[in-house]
Amino acid sequence: MSQIHKHTIPANIADRCLINPQQYEAMYQQSINAPDTFWGEQGKILDWIKPYQKVKNTSFAAGNVSIKWYEDGTLNLAANCLDRHLQENGDRTAIIWEGDDASQSKHISYKELHRDVC
């Protein structure tokens, strides 16, 4: 039988978290007890070109498993992952690249990433 190990979150990390453990637990419970409501709210965090009307469309029938999220909506992945962060967070780290040798690493800002991919 496996054991559950809990690790204390260092204060300097906990202070920067967007939610605390109690909020996480409440969100987790809502995701289990009311998934359409929970994921409907989470979907609103993204910028949609055409907003979704249906949160999920799932089938777990034998031989016909199908899971579709927000299938009637349209969004731009690059706009959500990169563009929307440029104005207020352009100088913040978007990607931390680390080579096979852990001493080789690079922090790439949103502005640098935008410059390199656009």
TrEMBL record:
MF terms (GO), sorted A to Z: acetate-CoA ligase activity
Domain Acetyl-coenzyme A synthetase N-terminal: 24-81
InterPro entries (UniProt xref): ACAS_N, ANL_N_sf
Signal sequence annotation: none
Keywords: Ligase
Any Gene Ontology CC annotation: cytosol
Name the UniProt record assigns to this protein: Acetyl-coenzyme A synthetase
Organism: Bacteroides thetaiotaomicron
